[in-house]
Amino acid sequence: MPLYCSRFMIAPCKRTLGDVVPGHSYRIFRQCWRKFWHPGRPYTGSVTSSPDSEFRNSEMSTKSERPFHTPVMLKEVLQFLDIKPGQVVLDLTFGGGGHSKAILQSAPGVTVVAADRDPTAFQMAQRLAEEYPGQVKPILGRFSELNNLLSALGLGPGGVDAALLDAGCSSMQMDSAERGFSLSKDGPLDMRMDGDRYPDMPCAADVVNALDQQALASVLAAYGEERHTRKIAAAIAQARSVYPIGRTLQLASIVAGAFPASALYARRDRLQRPAHVATKTFQALRIFVNDELNELHAGLRVARALLRPKGRLCTLTFHSLEDRLTKRFLRGEDLAAPPRRSHRQRARAQLEQEEHEEEEEENEEEGKGQESKYWVSLKKVIKPSEEEVQENPRARSAKLRTAVRR
Length: 406
Known about the structure:
Strand order of the largest sheet: 5-4-3-6-9-11-10
Largest sheet: 7 strands, mixed
Number of strands: 11
Structural class: alpha/beta
Helix content: 40-55%
Radius of gyration: 21 Å
Shape: globular
């Protein structure tokens, strides 16, 4: 069961994350939320940015940009789902609807159950349902809420022929300044994927203003895999003591201020492009605010419960925490097992894992991984082609895993 930090904030579940989160962090989370959270006066993150924000320029705007969505590895997803006429497909993360629309066009009479926790995505699913009458069933809810929502539609165990789970943040969320996901667009520091569905749910601004320095460093280490957690947490604590942190560019400027100017864009992404030093900080806050790893685990369990025997599952992940959890789930490992190594040992093991990633993928291809009683893997992890990455840079870190339900 998840650990409750307050009546509003649920800390990530220790039982499902295994060795992802240091065990001592849960006690810190509970203490700091009891100390700083004010139920009657929730912090909204609407404070204006401080005047010395370094990254604002004339092209930045708080107006929403027009959502643009390019489905990742669409050809590969359609190939492995292998949709047949009249089948029922569960799209657990509808997003912009690119995958769902392609699935509808791949075979006649296909029914797509389009689920998403984002109200904007739900509205887009409703519009697609009007375009394909009787073939699209929109659902608004988190993975952890889907069991009840899907049973209301008459979907039970074995009622789905194929399932797709596209984890992470959608392009339309990243491109909207008001959602607060992007460090390159100035907007309120929100990051809630549910939008305003849960007004009492803390946003990213609440986290950076309420968590004590030690707890904040734990969040950055666990969910951003950031090495300089103490330095960043100290800079945030010092800045918020002077001026509340409520804007995305304000936070990016604070994190950048903890590093020398030469290190601002010293990091590189997988395309060898300069990456801002606050990128991992924003990732960590987003995952923590939305409880993404627990929700991903819940979504995988929903797919396992609803897929018929020989039903197919495709998962798309975009960073190592998501991919590691998905891989362990498909292998049948016990995700509830408590960690048996120290934090230093886990960090060393993580570095070794990254160094031997290619060797591990070769082992997967040869079938040396742990066999699951629920899944049969179709192929080793698939990455986007160079052509797709050039056309859609956001696909650069994607990993596709495919499996068949036993």
